[in-house]
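All the exercises in this workshop are built on plain-text protein records. Sequence and backbone structure share a record, each on its own labelled line. The question running through the whole workshop is how a given chain folds. The record below serves as our worked example for the rest of this section.
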Amino acid sequence: MLPQLGLVDGDVGRHSTSSWHQFIPFLIAAGISVPVNVGSRILLSAVISYEFALAISHLLGMIVAFILNRAFVFPPSGQRLHEQLSRFTVVNALSLTQTCTLSSGLVRLGFPLIGFDFYPELIAHVVALAFSSVTSFWGHSRYSFARAG
């Protein structure tokens, strides 16, 4: 049996049955949305700043992730579509902050400090998305797709 993640499913504060069985489909959905996110960031970085490209690409990836998570990862919650989307947006705003901070920190400070120059923007973006996927799962399972009521 796989371990429980100790997340909340439904009422905030109540331990859930969210498990690796839900985390794995979440990672698959995230994995499908990542090419949209990273690909659009690469294209946008050619014409706008890295940080602005991160923000726009995050929005595009978020749309794909919302559709996949709602359809395949989280069970029906009883919330209306606009409520779930609003909550999903709040969690993703926090995820965007985390992704931009870590990614920009690596590109502007961390990588130059250690002399790392092998596709620094791409590597930083993917690393930041990987870190934010853990906190995003926590937020989406607790808040975005929590049971209504």
